[in-house]
Amino acid sequence: MTGQGTVRRRVHLVRHGEVAYFDRSGRPHNPRDVPLTPAGLKQVEALARHLATVPIDRAVCSGLPRTRETAGILIAGRGLRLEEDDGFREIRGGRLRDLPADGIEERLARAYAPCGEDGGRFLGGDLFAVFAERVRAAFHRLAAAPDWRSLLLVAHDGVNRAILCHALGCGLGAMAALEQDYAGLTIIDLEPDASGGGWRPLVRTMNMTAYDAVKADLHATSMERVARSRRRT
């Protein structure tokens, strides 16, 4: 409740903690199954300490193991049931073996570059526009539900970028600029619009990383880190 009597609800939007997308020989893991790494667990535990006294009355994740694991740490001891909504599942790329062999790391690092193009696809897979519409619809379903005031939503890099594009009212071309680090926290308040039939977003915080608040050790982008992890194997 604001000083003017406007009731706002709050979304705590979190990207899952670090995972390993490639094995030691450089072969990709199935992205549907990857769990958090030890570093990822520590990242999420650091965020859990920051959120320990924050009221949360509903918790939702995409259903993939890395989001279930992240959300479980963040709501531990709260007595909340963790819900799954596959409308928030991550954007899917095509098969790496179908991409030109030369420059795969560069393509990985620049995976969001086509996000604003007509017919742009993520690594030869999902169309950005179709993906973003699916995420938008899922987010609107949550916003329309009257049974929560403070929500935890644990999702993915691309999903969180799409939600931010929608909240900020910018085109999909901005997805490439809205970096989402592992276990990054974005806070979006929702307030009723003047018509009473919808809501307006207010972005409070974007991509706060509790384990490195000033990003001192975070210089590479998320996709650059993915590309480097393949190159190091």
What report would you give on this structure?
There is one protein chain. The relative contact order is 0.20. The model has no long low-confidence stretch (mean pLDDT 92). The chain is built from six helices and six strands. With 233 residues, the chain is of the alpha/beta class. Strands 3-2-4-1-5-6 form a six-stranded mixed β-sheet. β2, α2 and β3 form a beta-alpha-beta unit.
Give the secondary structure arrangement, pairings included.
Blueprint: E1 9-15, H1 38-51, E2 58-61, H2 65-74, E3 82-84, H3 104-109, H4 128-144, E4 150-155, H5 157-168, E5 185-192, E6 199-208, H6 222-232
Parallel strand pairs: 1-4, 2-3, 2-4
Antiparallel strand pairs: 1-5, 5-6
Give the averaged pLDDT, no decimals: 92
Strand residue percentage: 15-25%
Determine the structural class based on helices, strands and strand pairing: alpha/beta
Rg calc? 18 Å
Count of DSSP H/I helices: 6
Q: Name the helicity range.
A: 25-40%
Key attributes of the depicted protein:
alpha/beta, 233 residues, 6 helices, globular, 6 strands
